[in-house]
Design brief:
This protein is an alpha/beta fold. It has two domains: 184 residues, D-Maltodextrin-Binding Protein, domain 2; 114 residues, D-Maltodextrin-Binding Protein, domain 2, CATH 3.40.190.10. It contains eleven helices and ten strands. The N terminus is likely disordered. It comes from Roseicella frigidaeris. This is Tripartite tricarboxylate transporter substrate binding protein. InterPro entries: BUG (IPR005064), Bug_dom1 (IPR042100).
């Protein structure tokens, strides 16, 4: 889901010092970052990287807690209801912050009103992959096969970017299939790797190791262009012009968290994301650093909310 955040304030953010810890209010004890999806998936991976960077920057423990279920709603709702004291944060994604409101009658929280954005962290493409037994290697091959026989396909987050990526691929390709939605990357891969489903969509960091190991076949990345880390993998857009879906991830706090805490967390995260080591680590995972201001992150969420609400309405996507 590609809409770049406003980065005009990045240079100033990197140049300014971190707010002094001498203020003595935050963080004085370990901070939880809720990852609203299971361990091993992309949200979990980026939550743990974010926790490590903040721990290094602020000298206090940051621990990740996985609270999965309902397309991320359970974990996001827990953070929305948490005390706004800076000790419970959320690693949010397009699903939790911009999409679920259009799919669930009552997600249990408001992805815009109930949170104080801190900063975007990164953006990554999704990857469409197939079981090697299908004997195909690109989107054109998958489309041709799916028009010959009905294939089962999966995604890792109902209502999330992988769900929309799978449905947009199916609709633009003009194919049908048996859709299976999973609660995270690990259960979907548990069916895709042995061939119980024919193809699936996952965030690049979660599925790339299986592509490199040869246990899955890459069909294409969902970004507009090929990913520089694996230029041999085509973009879906090369077969379906205009196709594009990417996933972004960012840190948020409960609404009414004190501005001083938001400023401290933002400055720490922006500084760490600006280091060569962070850029290198994210690039290995297919990601791009996206540090910025809380205001830029809020504007990004609002734009994504409008964009994907319209797509869901026009496509008639409904939860099963």
């Amino acid at each position: 889901m590609r809409r770049r955040p406003l980065l005009a304030a990045l240079g100033a953010g990197l140049a300014s010092p971190l707010p002094a810890r001498a203020q003595g209010r935050w963080p004085e004890r370990p901070v939880r970052i809720i990852a609203p999806f299971p361990p091993g998936g992309t949200v979990d991976i980026f939550a743990r990287l974010t926790a490590a960077w903040l721990q290094e920057a602020l000298g206090q423990g940051f621990v990740v807690e996985n609270r999965s279920g309902a397309g991320g709603n359970i974990g996001a709702a827990a953070v929305a209801r948490a005390q706004p004291d800076g000790y419970t944060l959320l690693l949010g994604s397009p699903g939790t912050q911009a999409i679920n409101a259009h799919l669930y009658p009552n997600p249990g929280y408001d992805g815009i009103a109930d949170f104080a954005p801190i900063s975007l962290v990164t953006e990554v493409p999704n990857l469409v992959a197939a079981h090697p037994s299908l004997g195909i290697g690109d989107a054109a091959g998958l489309i041709a096969l799916a028009k010959q026989r009905r294939l089962a396909y999966g995604e890792t987050s109902i209502g999330g970017s992988t769900h929309l990526a799978a449905e947009l691929f199916r609709m633009q390709a003009g194919i049908e299939g048996d859709h299976v939605s999973y609660r995270g990357s690990t259960p979907m891969l548990g069916d895709l790797l042995p061939g119980r489903i024919a193809w699936g969509v996952d965030n690049l960091p979660s599925i790339l190791p299986h592509i490199r190991a040869g246990t899955l076949t890459a069909i294409g990345v969902t970004s507009r262009q090929r990913w520089s880390g694996a230029p041999e993998i085509p973009a879906i857009a090369e077969t379906l012009p205009g196709y594009e879906v990417t996933a972004w991830f960012g840190l948020l706090a409960p609404r009414e968290t004190p501005p001083a805490i938001i400023a401290t967390a933002n400055a720490a995260l922006v500084r760490m994301l600006g280091t060569p080591e962070a850029a290198r680590r994210l690039a290995e995972l297919g990601g791009t650093p996206l540090p910025g201001t809380p205001e830029a992150y809020r504007a990004h969420i609002l734009a994504e909310h409008r964009k994907w609400g319209e797509v869901i309405r026009q496509a008639g996507i409904r939860l099963e």
